[in-house]
Amino acid sequence: MSDVPVFLNVAALERLRSDARALLDARQAADEVLRGPSFTVTAKTKTPPSGDKRDYVSLGPYWWPNPGTPNGLPYVRRDGEVNPESLQTDRQVMEAMIAAVQSLAAAWWLTKDYRYAEGAAELLRVFFLDKNTRMNPNLNFGQAIPGHCDGRGIGIIDTRVLAGLLDHVMLMRDTGTIDKARLRAWFRDFGRWLRESPLGIAESKEHNNHGTWYDVQAAAFALYAGDFGVAHSVLREVAESRIDPQLAPDGSQPHEIARTLGLSYSTMNLCAFFWLGKIGERVGVDVWNGGGGGRSIRKSLDFLLPFWLEPARWKSPQIKKFDSRAPASLLRLAADLWQDPRYEAAAKQLGADWRIAFECAS
Question: For 252-262, what is the mean pLDDT?
Fold first, then answer.
């Protein structure tokens, strides 16, 4: 059960095997990855405060040099405005590795060419398993802020994309290329760090998208590692700890709307709730219908749908153009969940193509 993808639409993937264009695109993308490099957090030039380059390091994206001090310290916050300095960290290395593995996994699934599964396994080995290049299973230095701190619990949002990585790893479960025991052990150790470290405990208490994505990680990593009791425990609390405080009775998300990118953050947070709903199905917890006062994930989906189709109707802050393709994977999943043709029609209107079946929105 822990070897089956959670979020990916496997039925849609099966249909793609007869799509010549999808096969060609998948092969071309995967062949380019095979010609490219491996990825490791040890490639960075600066050593973390721990002295171990295997420790992950990133910078808070919305923090900028202080214009009022000679050395720029302490950094100051500009919500929604990304400091380019934050785009040259281990976060980008990790995301590049994930994109590469996803391309190879998609190509393997569609073509059954073992070169792609073997290439993905090598990328995973370098990033997670090799003693010299592996990422240590912690985020002690995630989203640091120069002049303030070396790392924050908020940095745990960086690794939400690992849940999508695991879905693609599961596509290759029968290839014999991946060291499942050691990879599961890494995610078990990381999950333990999430639950027991001071930074992880602090992040678990957040009441916006950070808290929702914390639960996704805690549950998804436990599910993959075979710790079903941990996953079940996380999901049992979702209605009271996440849905009730975050989703209003009308489906809006007040904590996210208050941000400078309200539509983007509302979509991102809803994606996390979809993850929790799907993981809940695996461990016997109904998250879809959880919440008091009529609150539900579907109601929040229906609240956002008109704004996805016409972002100009969004009247709350959104300081950057909304990427209308972002919710397409949610809509495809919603169409299957609730058999409502509105969602499939909306996905098509937003320009979803074959790749959407392989996407795990983040």
Answer: 97
